[in-house]
Every structure is written in structure tokens, then in C-alpha cells.
User: What shape does this take?
Amino acid sequence: MIPTVALVHVDAVTRRFPLDHNEVIALDHTSLRVERGEFLAIAGPSGSGKSTLLNLIGCIDKPTSGRILIDGVDTGTLSPVQLTDLRRKKIGFVFQTFNLIPVFTAAENVEFPLLIQGLSPAERRTRVTEALESVGLAGRAHQRPDLLSGGERQRVAVARAIVHRPALVLADEPTANLDTRNATQLIELMRGLNQRLGLTFIFSTHDQRLLEHTPRIVRLTDGQVVSDSFAKGDVHEQVSAACIS
Assistant: This one.
């Protein structure tokens, strides 16, 4: 049988950061494989390397050693222009602090990635409408972020992340600034998009509310994967961290 190409393959990655005359090891020979259509949480305490790993997968940062492959492409071999093109086409980002442009309406915020891609006005309108409808905000399209609730702003951020139809959505602590009701709604929204559209979601979190709805949880401690487990009833019951490749 020919092995399938993983959507994300983190291959023995180490990331070090200089600190004064020393260095901090944020990730230490970390490996991870993520298939298309997964809904996966990277969990762990503050400083465990969650955000660093997410930034590396999103091609925002580069590893000190090891490889990051996206859809079979070794990102370490790409030029800055090629990396930017990969991010635009294949990856959507949802940030903890929303990162919406305050003077733009919800629709304009969602449309912004499509402007960068150079799509026609008609195609942009269609995609923005579809994205806002998919997150339940069609009726709020012309409101600026300051007139939206925290939960609505985060849903706009999700719509912006999926409007260009990426293969992968990365979310950094997406429920951290939300109350329980809005956090639950966001979790249900992301899981619904994962199931209906086949979008692959990887998010960093230490929010137990989110972990309770996550089929696969990868736990980091001191920059290393210490467990990789699937929810009971999943076809993969348990994967040993030592076997990840």
C-alpha cells in the first residue's frame, strides 16, 4: 500500500530562541503527523511550546532544525515569496485577539484576504456572503467590530480564515477571551465547519471546554510531545508519542 501524504508533517523539529547569553528551547525534536479533515488540539501549560509549534506549522516562523512539510512540500526549501503564496492558498489563521481591522465592517474584514489574492469583485462578494452565512453572521455583515460582541468578532475571524477556502485552519487559543456561552458556540461552529466542509483544524489551547469536544489531543510539556490520544470510540484509540512520525 502506498502511504498517503499527510497534510501536516512535523519531522523532528527543534526551535531555539536566544536569551541574553543563553538560549531557550521552545521545541525539542518534536514530531507530529496530521491528516486531512482532522480536528486536533495542541494542549499544554503556558510555555510548553504550543504557540511556537502552531507558528511553525503556519510558516510564520522557521525551525532551528528538522522539517515542516505542508501537503508534502518541505517549507524549508521555499523562498519568502513561495512561503507567502503557500500561506495565502492553504492556511487560514484565527488569532486569540481577533486581529480585525476596526474601521472595516465585518464583510470588509472577511474580504481582505481575497483582495490580496486579486479575485474579481463578483467572486469576492460571493465568497464573503458564503463565509458569513457559514458562521451565522449574514445579518451583521455591515457592522464594524466595535458594534459586535466578543463571540461575534471571533466568528468574523473564523469567516476571514476560511473565506479563501484553505486546506488548513490554525487557531491560537481561540476561546481564551470568550465567556462560556460564546466559547461553546465557537467550538460548535468550528466542529461543524470541520464536519461539513472537511476543513482541517489545529488549535492551541489549555481550555478544558474546548478539549472536551476535541477528537484528538496532542499534549506538550517542555517542548516535547508527551501524549497523542484520540477520543474513545475513534477508529484510532491511542497513539504512542514515541511512534509519531
In short: The CA atoms of residues 151 and 182 lie 5 Å apart. Confidence is low (pLDDT under 50) at residues 235-245. The helical segments are 50-57, 80-90, 106-117, 121-134, 150-162, 180-197, 208-211.
